[in-house]
# Entry
Amino acid sequence: MIKVGDSLPNVNLTEYVPFEGEGCSVGPNVVRVAEATQGKTVAIFAVPGAFTPTCSERHLPGYLEQLPALKAKGVDEVWCVSVNDAFVMGAWAKASGAEGHIRFMGDGSADFAKATGLTLDLTAKGLGLRSTRYSMLVKDGKVAQLNVEEGGAFKVSDAGTLLSQL
# Structure
């Protein structure tokens, strides 16, 4: 499992970015994680699935609410990562009101989750391999803080915890 001090893996995530006005998606756009975090402070929170109850009702809203405070403490970007495709993540961003504020990154094949060792096997529940719920502060491509939940818990990966660690 990735730990504080480690560099993020050199894998790709995908992001849906809509055109201005009517039209199709510009994406899914490839986001090269190692490159996209260089020279930045990025708060990443990962969830088992878009549109799922805890993720939609508690985890995401906390980051949206704390976004100004996170930015005031030096966070350049906030990313939400989930083992979903970029189109689902884009729909969740729009439905939640977070579009344009938080970057929603799809990890469709769980490459990022596997590379970090932060996987959660929900096959028995019909959800397959997912990401563990966690939060991570990344500075210049390296993990500065890591808060990993046990099982399906939601105790340490919330925005308030990460904010208090800045």
Summary: The chain has a mean pLDDT of 91. The chain has one domain: 12-164.
